[in-house]
Amino acid sequence: MAARARQQTENKAEADADKTERMRSTKVSRNPQRTHAAILEAATEEFAAHGFGGARVDAIAARAQTNKRMLYHYFGDKEGLYLAVLEATYATIRDAEKQLDLARRRPEEGMRELALFTWRHFLAHPEFLSLLATENLHHAHYLQRSEKVSVMHSHLIDELSDVLHRGEAAGIFRPAVDPISVYLTIAALGFFYLSNRHTLSTIFARKLTAPDALNAWGEHIVAVTLASIRV
Amino acid sequence: MAARARQQTENKAEADADKTERMRSTKVSRNPQRTHAAILEAATEEFAAHGFGGARVDAIAARAQTNKRMLYHYFGDKEGLYLAVLEATYATIRDAEKQLDLARRRPEEGMRELALFTWRHFLAHPEFLSLLATENLHHAHYLQRSEKVSVMHSHLIDELSDVLHRGEAAGIFRPAVDPISVYLTIAALGFFYLSNRHTLSTIFARKLTAPDALNAWGEHIVAVTLASIRV
DNA sequence: CCAACTTGTAACCAAATAGTTATATCATGC
DNA sequence: GCATGATATAACTATTTGGTTACAAGTTGG
């Protein structure tokens, strides 16, 4: 989410600056949206890097080039900030998933598309994986508080169900395959490989993050997923 | 590891107490092995529950029913204690893996055995999964310092290679299957399901940890693994 | 243009935290 | 049987931490 958030923030900040300058041509020495977004982005990095307990509020304020007063002003306390980070990160995922439109693809192509989409998404958002690991350490304590995240992946599961049914009708996928199991399988293969890459490469002495290795694992996910649902 | 460590500790403690009482029949008010093991067990729980940054040294000392002086006496500092926990936890895994003897099993049975073993092992050792997640958050910083953990899974990979070769020779497995990819597949399916169960069940509103669901997922791992390597 | 409100800074505080010291007690080799 | 080192306790300290307060300065509606 970091890159995207920064992009949006800067765009908004520039727009605000332009408007203000057109009106009175003063130096922009305050900019609430920018400060808010800068804190959120800094917090995302800090929480992803150190976990909830390891994250330092002072460090977040410093990284956002503001101070703690603003942080507490916008987000209440450390937990509120953490929850805001979680929700913003999930929102990014949800937005990205909307890009998927598998309805017109042939079943096997659709499954390939879905698996590679998930894999590339994990690759592009390492902070999402880290936050997920941290949140699970805390038994999803904070995520459960959020009303916004409840019906999160329904779009994805709907699209997946459709693909599976069409594959079944065409006689190439087994009948009554559970879409959630299929999704968990795809997510598991991508998540584990990336989130555990450091301990895995320490143990196996293998460069898991070389570009070739990453592409190969993406194809591996596709192959395993298809093999597991074909008749 | 917790249960096993506690068991060993208590056995040793009892043996020591017996010996001491036979010799002079004094109350046992000091017992280095027990203290050492109690600290290690308490630290395992604390680090697994809160991560490195979230773990509290005072809490560990209190949980071990000793005090910080002893903790620093035996383990140097917080990082030394964390490293000791990591090494002890990996040692438990390594010991368990030695129970595996797949050499005489038919290939498909061997694969099933290996997958279920890994799954049951993860189920029995949730603290291992949490510590792994924490360690990866820190880019395996501490694990890399340990010389002891380098050639960790070699036994497992050797056994797996043998099973794959025999399956290939029998014409039921595809040729030149990469054993590490197969192991990663098995581990990924188990690890992700368990370590992310809290966020997953929040999102999907499904009880992932019901006994039936757990058994079903174990069979799912077996089925997916076999489907991915069969000719 | 000014009163009310928002955004910002920096100094401050109480509690928590990792790590230490002083000191006492147990065990044991000589 | 006692000198010595290992094991234990609890009080202590310096620093860090999350969170607050006093106050300054920018912004805006009337």
TrEMBL record, chains A, B:
Alphabetical UniProt keywords: DNA-binding
Segments of this protein annotated with the region Disordered: 1-33
GO molecular function: DNA binding
Entry protein name: TetR/AcrR family transcriptional regulator
Compositionally skewed regions (Basic and acidic residues) per UniProt: 7-24
Origin: domain of life: Bacteria
DNA-binding found in the keyword field: yes
A Pfam family that the UniProt record links to this protein: TetR_N
PANTHER family the record matches: HTH-TYPE TRANSCRIPTIONAL REPRESSOR SCO4008 (PTHR30328:SF54), TRANSCRIPTIONAL REPRESSOR (PTHR30328)
Keyword Ubl conjugation included in the entry's annotation: no
Residue ranges annotated for the HTH tetR-type domain, each copy included: 33-93
UniProt DNA-binding region: 56-75
